[in-house]
What we know:
The protein is mainly α and 158 residues long. It has one domain (19-144): Orthogonal Bundle (Arc Repressor Mutant, subunit A). It has seven helices and two strands. It has a two-stranded antiparallel ribbon. It is globular. It starts with 11 loop residues before the first helix and ends with a helix. This is DNA-binding MarR family transcriptional regulator. It holds the Pfam family MarR_2. One of its GO terms (biological process) is response to stress. Residues 10-144 form the HTH marR-type domain.
Amino acid sequence: MASADPARPGFQLPLLLLAGFRTLIDDLHAELARQGHPELRPLHGFVLQAVGMDGTTATELGQRLGISKQAAGKTVDRLVEVGYLERVDDPRDARRRLVRVTPRGADGLRRSAEIFDTLRRQWAERLGAERVDAIEDDLRAMASTNWFRLDMPGWFGG
């Protein structure tokens, strides 16, 4: 069945939502680069969030992100190389290695949160605070109850 409004076909909604997401993420990463974090990429934010402040194993990280242990390990290798993560012995089990966020990684996460606040203010200045609030409220109403999931990389990758 065709869209009731040919000027607003149904397929445009997800594309516009993705375009808005992409705009925010691109603006975030441009500012992160200016603030001394040029190595961070969109995937890295998901990884740092999934590692969390308590750390995790590569296997658990892969499960949280919905990717293979090998893909998680490769991403961890890169983030260790540029100083955002570190590998340490697990104090509870000497056979395991934990991946932890370094101070540089925590700084990247902190700056990301501050930049997102700035970007939201910019959207509110352009569209109006009430409209941005309404967009957020409407998206919360339509999103599933577990909308904050870190397995987006695996979901996009198939």
